[in-house]
Amino acid sequence: MAQEVCCLKAQLKEKEKEIAALKKKLAQLEKSHPTVLELHDKVTPLTPLTSNPALSNEDIMRYSRQLLLPDLGVRGQLNLSKTSVLIVGCGGLGCPLAQYLAAAGIGRLGLLDYDEVELSNLHRQVLHGEENQGQAKALSAANAVKRLNSTVECIPYHLQLSSDNAVQLIQQYDIVADCSDNVPTRYLVNDACVLSGKPLVSASALRMEGQLTVYNYRGGPCYRCLYPLPPPPETVTNCSDGGVLGVVPGIMGCFQALEVLKIASGHGSSCGQQLVMFDAQDARFRSIKLRPKQPGCAVCGENPSVTQLVDYEAFCGSAATDKCLKLNLLSKDQRITVQDYKSIMDDAGPHLLLDVRPLVEVDICHLPSSLNIPLSSLQERKSEHLQLLQERISELKQQMAGDCRPPVYVICKQGNDSQKAVQVLDKMSGSEVDNIAVKDISGGLMAWAKRIDPTFPQY
Length: 459
Ligand SMILES: Nc1ncnc2c1ncn2[C@@H]1O[C@H](COP(=O)(O)OP(=O)(O)OP(=O)(O)O)[C@@H](O)[C@H]1O
Ligand SMILES: [Zn+2]
Fold this sequence. Notes:
single chain; 5-stranded parallel beta sheet; binds zinc ion; metal ion binding; binds adenosine-5'-triphosphate; Rossmann fold; nucleotide-binding; molybdopterin-synthase adenylyltransferase activity; Oxidized Rhodanese, domain 1; transferase; 2 domains
């Protein structure tokens, strides 16, 4: 019996040694690979952020250039290390924002995005590289941030912020930054911030312009105070439609980082009742004072009607992504598929293919023998364009002979503008131009690239 106990004790000691050696190896591995991060696909409770009571020598060295600023100092730096920030969207704004917050020594960064990295992201989403294509943006951004500053705690969330998870998630952070690109998410983030009492540093960038405001901050207005109703979905343009010069969200994301750092350090932001507008064309910033918090606001007012998160896609009439805004303005018999058009093209019967994209897009790629008249020119009834259209219709009539309505097929990038153009052309048919039979090509050139010709460029 005693011998058995002795033997077990010896075995136990041996195992303990093995465990200690394994722990040591693991610690070494974790140190040499600080980028191994767990990707979260749901909201998990976080432990409270602990911070050191004083700066280490390494901290002093790393942050020395900003510690010298009286506006920050040791106290401000320690405040940064105690602050957690949730970044909604790791795209054009979220990347530079995360980069500067991590570099400055923010305590914890939640990096949230449902999407994966694509080649067309890389001109502005500067934390992602070519090798990250197809990877979750949240993870790619978190890995890049960790390489920059391994002392920052990074939590990548590969999920869509929704009414089901937003409050639970936002409650765990001190400051929220909206770096998303769609209206439903803007209302969702706003309402969740109001309900959780968190300041919201919000920015946007499109084409050559950017905007920034801090909402729900020190008694200032929330997003709904200023925009009680969403804009009609068809009036909203996003980067994939309108384009954006990469450096513009870069500047606005850095600006968001600045305001977050000012709030986190204790200095405070002055953008709580201000809209800052950046015009890249003129290299100018302008600020306008916004109206104050509205007592009648639906979420932060005196008698709020929104006391919990609602259905934001229904409220805005559009999806909480910028990917699938597909208008449906026409009846079935006013539309044909790209496959139908391929047959028409192969049959080579007389018809007109009208491309209604702006010239800048036609220069990128177009189908052979299409006539380009931008939608805006049709809507404005530009006489030189109407003349051109009439000329082509007359040619067709000659080719077709007899009393006929020449077929006109309308195409654009994704099949939204082409539907609007069909409506305009239908109105013009028989009055401003000769009678025509107009049809929309569903899904536009991107559907053509996907289903008919994989060598056709996608943009
Ligand atoms: N509700 C949401 N939950 C999580 N991520 C979101 C949500 N709404 C938007 N995003 C993310 O916000 C980011 C916005 O960035 P940006 O507009 O630069 O990128 P993008 O959508 O990839 O661009 P593009 O329009 O060129 O495809 C995107 O990565 C998008 O996935
Ligand atoms: Zn409000």
